[in-house]
Amino acid sequence: MNCKIGIRGLSNGEHPFHFKVDGSFFEAYESDTVSDAELDINVLITKEPGRMSLDLGITGDVTVKCDRCLADLKIPVDIQVPFSVMFSSYAEDAEEGVSDEVILLDGSSSEIDLGQIIYDYVNLSLPIKKVHPDGECDPEMMEKLKDILK
pTM of this prediction? Predict the structure, then answer.
């Protein structure tokens, strides 16, 4: 799954980008948590002389295994993250403390690869305990668990 956005030649101003991420994206990262996904990725790059800001929006659903019954569980995802994109010649600015997340690129970079960032933010957004609401777990598995726990 290509999550790269070309930045060379962008004029000053706002530039929206949109793409979709599915289960194959997480397979490429050999994810053992997310088995499927239907995510919309919206990126708004605002370019200014010498720097850019990037607003990343990730919405949709990911499918994981329920920690209790091991059945598929869809979890909604709604992530909005602002980033400052700085080039290596502005590295000292990043050290002075930028309030947003910072993506630091080499001055010769022609694209931004958001793949790892998307993967990390989706995984960090998942709850620690991934279970169906009470009464919605796989009944057959719940019976087996009751038998084991007797």
Answer: 0.85
Number of structural domains found in the chain: 1
Cα 24 to its chain centre, rounded Å, is 14
| Alpha-carbon gap, residue 95 to 124, rounded angstroms | 25
Could you tell me the CA-to-CA distances from 30 to 3, 25, 34, 36, 149 in Å, in that order? Answer: 16, 9, 9, 12, 33
87 confidence band (pLDDT: 50, 70, 90): confident
Angle at CA of residue 64, ends 60 and 65, nearest 5°: 155
pLDDT at residue 94, as a whole number: 46
- Segment 11-24 shows an average pLDDT of 95
How far is the C-alpha of 25 from the C-alpha of 117, rounded, in Å? 12
What range defines the domain where residue 24 resides?
A: 4-148
